[in-house]
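FAQ: What does the model actually see?

It sees only this:
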Amino acid sequence: MPMQRPPMIRTDMSNPFANNTIRVRLPRIIEETLQLNPDYTAPIPTALRQLSDDLQSDAPISMLKLPAPDYDEWAAIYAHHAGETWQTSIWYFAEHYFYRLMMQAVRWWETQRDP
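And it is asked to produce this:
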């Protein structure tokens, strides 16, 4: 008999922990990053604040911008979640993808600076 897996944890209100992660914990990580890096050039804080706003306002999850060396890998994963919002997605995807978008926002591929 095939094993039945439990339903995936979602970021909606069906799971308060996952929902809090998206609405509160991840924006706090962004805020802490901004506080620890006051010398970021103007585009970086703007991008980080936009990501924070998107999380809190339940915006659609956006695809990575090019150029990105891992674009194809993420595009394949993202395809399963296209059209989802931050507060209606699968928690595991949303949490991991958040960190990838954060790397884009801080321009890690250009600067190699760990936020």
